[in-house]
Known about the structure:
4 helices; single chain
Amino acid sequence: MEIPGRFYVAETNGWLVSHRINSALPGYLMVSSKADTNDLSELSEDALAELGPLLAAAQKVLRQELHAERVYIGRYGHSPGYPIHFHVIPIYYWVEELFWKDERYRLLETFAEGPGETPTDGAELTLFVWREFCERAEPPPIDGPTVSEAIELLRRTIGA
């Protein structure tokens, strides 16, 4: 799949970093292998050595520059024709506020058991981001930089 240039963020010899095309959530990144495989064990040693530092750099920039409270990193999907890729999802305070205002997720508050435990469930929050910021025709309003502004900031800082 060809990534439109306006979503391009950075690249290494083995990986391409782009903003998720259909996401209205600023800073939602995709880290995609340049190798045509869907299996980590088939990647070169060099590509594997680049992956950890690249994911760490993406997380650091999202937390320090865009002020994400959390950053979820996951590998999803298995569609033929798409190389192995990782979703790097920033979770901002305002995303969690929207999450807890949604009645569908109120029940999760009962799962926090002790001091310091958060009732936020990562899988449910990821699903919320996908549904609200990637699938909805009119996503919720954002608090902070736009997607375009976030991409510009990430281009300047992710490789630094």
